[in-house]
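call fold(seq) -> C-alpha cells
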Amino acid sequence: MPTIRPARESDRDALYSICLETGDSGEDATGLYADPLILGHVYAGPYLSYAPDFAFVLEDAEGVGGYVIGTPDSRAFEATLEREWWPKLRAQYPDPAAIPRESRTPDERIMAVIHDHTRKTSDVYDAYPAHLHIDLLPRMQGGGNGRALMERLFTALRDAGVPGVHLGVGGRNTRAQGFYQHLGFRELERTNGGITLGYML
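ret:
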C-alpha cells in the first residue's frame, strides 16, 4: 500500500518528473516541452525549497508516485520567490515578451510566467490565503490516495492556523474539477480558461 511522508530534498527529481508527467491538464506533458525541467521550476521546486513543512509525497514499492505541495501564506510566498527564486530562473531563461502570445511554444509560455514582474494577488487570498498543487501518476490515482494526501496537507495548514486554501485547475480538466468538488471545494472565480476553487479549513 502507498504511504504518505514528508517530502525531502532528495525527492526533488521525482517531484519534477511527476509535475511533467501530469502537466497537460493531468496528462503526460513530456512531449510538449523541450526543457523537461521548466514546469517543475515553476510548479514544484519552489515549494520544496521555501515551504517544506507543507510538502508531502505518496510512495510505494516503485518509489514516489504523487505529491501535494502548498504554502500557508500565498502573498508572503510570492514575495519570497520574487527575492530568491525567480531572479535565478530569469537569468537562465530568456524573456519571450517580444514573441506574440499566440506564437509562443509551451516552453515560452512558462518562460513568460517566470518573467512576470506584475503578479497580482487576488481578493481570494483574504479568505483562502493558502494554496496547493497536487499531482499523482496513474498508478497512484484512485483508491483514496488523492484524498489522503489532501487531508495530510489540510491538517498541516490547520495546525498553522490557516482559515482556507485555494487552487487553480484548467477549465478542460473536468476530472480534477470533480475530484476537488467531491472534497468540498467550491468555485470562486474563472479567468483565462482556468478555475479557482476554494476550501474552508
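Residues 145-159 form the longest helix (15 residues).
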